[in-house]
Design brief:
By secondary structure, the protein is an all-alpha fold. It has 7 helices and no strands. The protein has one domain. Helix 2 packs antiparallel against helix 4. The longest helix is centred in the last third of the chain and has 29 residues.
Length: 135
């Protein structure tokens, strides 16, 4: 078990899982009354039937919270250091090392890379959300 990635995944989930849960509760509570009543009248209860009727309407925020949780997990260092095996290095730890040892060229390149990837994913989410609402 210690040689698998399961402890790392569980540590990251324990740190950031509150965000998708809160957004999921908010999205579930904000379902349009007419859609919810129609689903109940048709007997379409449960997650699968909710996904068939309402998932398309909340796909943008669901993807956005997934990306935000991934970003928070990607920069998580406290829980990662506690559960990672010896010899395993990850990006947050490497950035912290570069910062402490004043490796500005590497730190700047990593910052540009992280901002570029974050900006690219943000643009894709916004464009995808705009096209998802037109149908």
């Amino acid at each position: 078990l210690a040689e698998t990635g399961l402890p790392m995944v569980l540590a990251h989930l324990s740190r950031v899982a509150f965000l998708p849960v809160l957004v999921g509760l908010w999205l579930g509570a904000s379902e349009a009354g007419a859609i919810a009543e129609t689903r109940l009248l048709d007997g379409a209860t449960g997650f699968v039937n909710w996904a068939r009727t309402s998932l398309r309407l909340v796909l943008g925020p669901a993807v956005a919270v997934g990306v935000a949780s991934g970003c928070l997990s990607f920069h998580e260092i406290e829980s990662s250091v506690q559960v990672q095996g010896p010899g395993i290095d990850h990006m947050a730890q490497r950035l912290l090392q570069w910062l402490h040892y004043e490796r500005m060229a590497e730190l700047s390149a990593a910052g540009v890379l992280l901002l570029g990837v974050g900006l690219g994913v943000s643009v894709l989410v916004v464009v995808g959300g705009a096209f998802g609402r037109k149908g």
